[in-house]
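Q: Hi! First time asking for a complex rather than a single chain. Here are the components, and I think there are three in total. Is that enough to go on?
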Amino acid sequence: MPELPEVERARRLIEHVAIGHRILEVTCAHDPIVLVNVSPTTVTRTLTNRMVLGVRRWGKHLWLELDQRPWPCFHLGMTGHFRTKGDVPLQLASSPSHADQTWPPRFSKLHLVLTGGIELALTNKRRLGRIRLRHDPEHEPPISELGFDPLLDLPSPTRFAELFSKRSGVIKSLLLDQSFAAGVGNWIADEVLYQARLDPRRHANQLSASDIRRLRLKLRHIIQTAVRANADNTQLPKSWLFHRRWGRKSNMTIQGRRIEHLTIGGRTTAWVPEVQE
DNA sequence: CTCAGTGTTCAGTG
DNA sequence: TCACTGAACACTGA
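A: Yes, that's all I need. Here is the structure of the assembled complex.
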């Protein structure tokens, strides 16, 4: 599910419920796909009795800073969610509607009971998420291999243009490349290109200075807007392509203009030729 | 029944 | 080295 804004919401949720609390109990699923090179036993032993000091994010990766290393690192894949048992400000709650009352939830991969009676669970229905242990997450793969985070570390206009001049691939693929821009996923890439009025098939090193300037500002604007909305998609501006990119793929329009679909880099790309060509 | 999906990685090719 | 493709991973819902 998540692109940068959803992961940031998960970060805030965990920060809200876990900072300053100690982990009393850990239940970790036996799932060798989600758990990368680590056993459930080791995860449990590593986390039990630890104090949560911080919650950090870079791109779509999330990790906990504990009072003792190694630290747990998470990637949510397409269907990962953090859920909590107990009251949480509504805007931080995981998915807008989770009528699922069971606890711990279905597809739970990690379940933590913290001091103060708070419980936190990581679910992953489709098992594309990952849990890792790292001594220094920022300086070890996979996080060390990520590019800039558009929210935390957007390059200056000059630097941004430099990055583009060095890449020859198509811009849609470049935006999805996590070693270029960490946290951008399929719908954000399409939204940025639509709002910046750029054909997704253009090559990075053939953009003009003003193309690159628009792209940078839209990247920042779209991510900031989605993060301020706490990744509640219903709150995103009505004018955004986001609201119209899915559904039946025929006869879709935005402001009277036809939405077309292409496959670029193996992903469906929604775009509006009249605006972006 | 089939296929695509708010994602990533790896093998193979040019 | 870089860029691109397709497959794999696993499951649900249109």
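A: The two ends of chain A are 29 Å apart (CA to CA). Let me know if you'd like any chain examined more closely.
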